[in-house]
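Example 3.2
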Amino acid sequence: MRTLKILGLLAFMIMNFSSCRYTDEPKFIVYNLGFSFQDASGNDLVKGIGLEEWSAGMSMENALWGSVDPDLYVLDIIVSEPCDNWDNEIYNSPARPGFTPTVHRPKLVMERRYNGDCYLTNNFGFPVGACPEEKILTYKLKSPYVFGDDAIHEFVTYWDIPKIKKTPGTENYAKCYRIEFEGNEIIPQSPKDKSKNYVATIMLDSLPK
């Protein structure tokens, strides 16, 4: 009888340990990236972009952050590996059935840095169970305000996916280590907090506004 009790206790401990390991595994791989656009003279090309919503108690011009007006840009993100939760043909993530909108298009947020410069950020996550590791993402951005034209500009980004067996919470954060733009290689600035944005400074020719 004592042997059966010991075996039962061991089985319970194994089941409990397995359950804890399962719930501690990350459910999403999160990609956080920001772009700072400057002209040849170092002028901030994002500053003054129209916002749909912004930080409370401030004017739009002085806002610390805000959702960029969706009429001012189109952002598509292309994945390198097939993913159940992402469609490269329509460049978006399907929403749950019955919800509005029917798709979730990638969005841009303006954030203001400590030195007053503004940059555009995009943050999203891929579910671990539905997608393989996405190590190359192509951002296709059209923004006449930033670029001064109606062209679609491509940024090919390269990411490392940290190997973490157990993590507090449900997210694992990808690390951006290189960006290619119009034949140039850009090394983004790494955040001190892994949950914050990697920031790439993109130098453009002086553009008319």
